[in-house]
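Re: zinc ion structure - here you go.
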Amino acid sequence: MNCADLRLLLHAYSDGELDLVRSLDVEQHLQTCAACAAQNQSLRSLRSALRSAPLAYAAPPSLRQKVRQLNREPADSPPPESLRQPRAPWLWQWLAFGATAAAVLILALRPVGPAPGDLLADELVSGHVRSLMAGHLTDVQSSDQHTVKPWFNGKLDFAPTVKDFAAQGFPLVGGRLDYLQGRAVSALVYRRNQHVINVFVWPTDRPGAGQPVAENRRGFNLISRDVDHLHYWLVSDLNPTELSQLADLIGKPGTAP
Ligand SMILES: [Zn+2]
């Protein structure tokens, strides 16, 4: 990893968003490069300064007093029941209008929480993009399935099936360890002409080869399918039609990669 690669990943590293392998890459670089280590240090200082800074203030008593005076309420004791009608109805109307407007604004601006499936799709696309950006597409580079498959031995708690589909136009490029949904997964890398396809694989309880599910996220096409207790996610900028050809090859009995 060079300095330019590191600068691309530093913020994600600092936010704890990198997978295990890339975090180790970053740490290794930081140990040997003073310039990048200094930048990492200043990022950390900024984070801790923001965390400890008092970013909320209580209204001073003088302001409370002024608001009460505006409403001509006695400052200390609550008014008797008969006097609780505001003497300045226009002020209440304005306050009510302001509160309603604020509520509407908050509802409009409130971030919509992503569904769990969306989070996974985002993680998958991020994993795909990082593998292209950081020059870390493969840990083991080989078109030979008999080289790639054993490479995962001892690195994962399952054995991914690895198959080359060069004859069908999807040559195997290699494999990589990745980290998704809080677990280590295998990423198999295929090519279709100039397009890179990441196939993320991890175990699932679902046995069958159900119909593939396709979606588009941030301009990338994703297809998922379960085959023989393994969960496959294909991610690429390849068009959905050709990507589904690879998904079909993976789903074919006896030909899962
Ligand atoms: Zn550096």
